[in-house]
Amino acid sequence: MSNNYFEIIRPGINTTFQDKGRDHLYHIGIPFSGAMDNRNYLIANKLVNNKLDSAVIEFAYQGPHLKYSGERINFAVTGDVIFLIKKKDTEIEGNCYQSYQIENGDEINIVSTNKSVYGYLSLGGELDLKFQWNSCSINTKANIGSNDGKKLDVGQRINLKKINLNKDIKKTNYINTKIENIRVIKGTNFDYFSEEGKKIFYEKEFIVSKLSDRMGMRLEGPKIENIVNTNIKSEGLIKGVIQVPADGNPIIMLSDHGTVGGYPKIGVVASADYDRLVQMAPGSKIKFKEINLSDAETLFKLYEMETQNFLSQI
Amino acid sequence: MIKNISNLGDAALYCDFGDEVNKSINSQVIKYFKTIKEKKFEGINNLTPSYNKLIISYDLKKTNFKEVKKFIENINIDDSEKTNSKKLEIPVCCHENFSMDIKRLVEILKLSREKILENFLNKEYFCYMTGFIAGMPFLGDLDENMRAQRLETPRVKVPKGSVALTEQFANIYTFESPGGWNILGNTPLDVFDSSKEDKPNLINPGDTVIFKEITLDQYKNYNE
Domain for residue B108, yes or no? Predict the structure, then answer.
């Protein structure tokens, strides 16, 4: 048993361990998984001086309430998150993008994300977790990864294998920007849709539905009419693919998506916009803008440079 | 052969082998899949073979569409390559506890329960692909008179182990999952085992599967 651990007083709604995810497994039906918002995941690790591909605790909407036992440790929270730190008799509101030091008996209470979905809690050191296919990422649909592939539950312990304490507090000024349009590349079945349907896809607003999770984001709004066939022979999917089933409501594949699907693909979200897409909470308005492949590649390069730039400033 | 290569978003290649579903096209897809997998091209992070398509996804930080396309266009596929495919027997119990859609199938196919089972069991089916949920095999082809459409409203929960039909295909639900296929029976066999990291799937593309009927008692005693 580890001497340094967190006890889960309240697990939160969908709290899991995540890292960079697992690859080379689509052909047997296993998706990447991994942290949904990759940039915030990397920043969380950098703030506590962890290796960038270390495991973190990902939460959605309401996060966990944890009580710590053990020697001094650093932690940081990233995303747009409201959280409290309780030390002996004082309770303070924490700031995201800043590392803190806590000691035996202290508590971290992640109250909620603010108009966003995912947040990250990193701990300075190494979590004691089981790896499957080189990743501890929890995939609750296939029960793969650490914690028997299940989300964290009340009363459980989160054990640390190792602690790397930094005396200095690390801080960065990062603001989660919202974008007006999600940029998409035309899908392989774009011509299955009526002229009116294509126009609706690019010109109208859609609303993110409550039926969204790590597997997919469902959208509601004007129906997109299919004039060829509402089913195709099942074929491979990747994250960001926008499928339109017979009911005309688009579904965007996210990190835990089914690896094959049989609905026509109207578009694919540009990689540069994925982190911001997953943070759009139910009720958010979403509008798509068409770009071509080479623009998408350039945008991703810029996004990646920006990420590296943020990391280098920490 | 690949008829056309296009992009699926900015981080995947969409290799189209045609529109038909048959063993010969699918075997080509599987050959490409195996060859590319062995070459370990820097940046390719996933391959998804299906009936007649192959999706190749890559890390946009390491490579791009142009580079991967060039690599695929110049690859040599060894046509003589022998596949190490297996022949597997899968026990299935078609007791009324499990065959949730038998009434529907009797109605749609206009065949008796006995005739449906006779048509389905003890025949060789080819595994075209695995996926959707971890380890789920897509098997075919069912006899012409056995082809039914998906349920109009998919079930929210299909029990683990369910053996189900749709169009010319059969599959096995390796986990409890949502699904719209017509359920005919259930297998007590674990078709996916995540503790076996080197080969978690019992059934792989290219394998042959035969369903053998077992009784409810045999089903209950199967894992003891």
Answer: yes
pLDDT in tens, A62-104: 999 999 999 999 999 999 999 999 998 899 999 999 999 999 9
Q: Which domain holds residue B162?
A: 87-221
Count structural domains, chain A.
2
| CATH code: domain of residue B28 | 3.30.1360.40
Q: Which of A124, A230, A110 is nearest to A167 (CA)?
A: A124
Q: Which of A106, A131, A163 is the last residue of a domain?
A: A163
Q: Which residue stretches of chain B have pLDDT < 50?
A: none
B60 and B94 inside one domain: no
Q: Say how far apart CA B23 and CA B175 lie, in whole Å.
A: 27
Q: Which domain holds residue A71?
A: 5-163
Predicted TM-score (pTM) of this structure = 0.94
Residue A1 has pLDDT above 60, yes or no: no
Answer yes or no: is B133 within a domain: yes
In this structure, the answer to whether residues A155 and A20 fall within a common structural domain is yes
What is the structure's pLDDT at A224?
A: 96
Q: Are A46 and A98 in contact (CB under 8 A)?
A: no
The C-alpha atoms of residue A112 and residue B147 are separated, in whole angstroms, by 49
Task: Tell me the pLDDT tens digit for each residue of A196-254.
Answer: 999 999 999 999 999 899 999 999 999 999 999 988 999 999 999 999 998 899 999 99
**Does residue A71 lie within any of the structural domains?**
yes
Give the one of B61, B133, B136 whose C-beta lies nearest to A304's C-beta: B61
| ipTM for this prediction | 0.94
For residue B197, give the nearest of A32, A132, A300 by CB distance.
A132
Q: How close B59 comes to chain A (CA, Å)? A: 10
> Which residues have C-beta within 8 Å of that of residue A138, sequence separation ≥ 6?
A16, A17, A18, A33, A144, A145, A146, A147, A149, A150, A151
Q: Alpha helices of A188-273 — where are they, by DSSP H? A: 195-203
Q: Classify residue A176: in a domain, yes or no.
A: no
Could you tell me if A157 and A11 lie in one domain?
yes
Between strands A182-186 and A288-290, the pairing is parallel
With a CB-CB cutoff of 8 Å, which residues 274-303 of chain A face chain B?
293, 296-297, 300
- The bridge status of strand B155-158 relative to strand B87-93 is unpaired
Nearest CA in chain B to A305: B61
Contact A234 B138 (CB under 8 A): yes
**List of long-range contacts for A204-210, beta carbons under 8 Å, 24+ apart:** A204/A287, A205/A285, A205/A286, A205/A287, A206/A250, A206/A285, A206/A286, A206/A287, A206/A288, A207/A283, A207/A284, A207/A285, A207/A286, A208/A280, A208/A281, A208/A282, A208/A283, A208/A284, A208/A286, A209/A249, A209/A282, A210/A282
Instruction: For residues A53 and A103, state if they share a domain.
Output: yes
Q: Do B113 and B204 fall into the same domain?
A: yes
Given A163, A191, A216, the domain boundary residue is A163
